[in-house]
Amino acid sequence: MAVQSPPFTALYCYGVTWADAAEAQRSGGLAGKSVEPVRFEELAALASEAPEGKIRARRADLMCHFDVLARAFERGTVIPLRFGIVLEDVVEDFLRPRRDELVRLLQELQGRVELRVTAHYREEAILAEIVRENARVARLRGQSSQGLLMELGELVAGELQARTNRDALQPLVIDHEVDEEPIEHQVLRASFLVERKQVPAFDSAMEDLASGQAGRIDFKYMGPLPPHSFVSLEAR
User: Fold this and answer.
1) Are 87 and 13 in contact (CB under 8 A)?
2) Minimal CA–CA distance to 119: which of 77, 152, 75?
């Protein structure tokens, strides 16, 4: 009787790190699977057995994907992969053919982190201020205020972006990404790539900005995070 081959197991991949910094994460992956490093030379892909069926971008699974990367990020530099990447052979399909690119990216990202900033209006306070200071707005007060709020948001976002180009912040920010999609009452949603050693200085700059807008705009500040906004590869 012929011997059957064992069933093929595809692997879900979260990201890439240095081989000497990679370690397993027991039951930390999608569907409670163990995350194991798949090593090739100085690289290691973080992978777990792919869940059965189609992988959907449900909130719990997205958070699991990010949590695996965050835990790995505590140990060393990480290149995030986009959510939903499943590979048949991690080494031959991904690590080997893209080895030089991955090594270069890890070297570039060494010691760098992502910081995320969001800001939202306090609508009543902002409108009251605008009405006091702008006669044209006062005349239009009975009409929709959405356009006025969006205009203010553009001004504040522009101010924050301008600050990144001034001497005080220029040494802190390597790169930044601003989300241009408008959301009600949102002034800003942006990500900043900075050196880890500069995080305290960036913290201080953000505290100054938030205190200057106290009572008008509420800020939310997250990080340090893996650099999702600046390098998130897709496996070819």
Assistant:
1) yes
2) 152
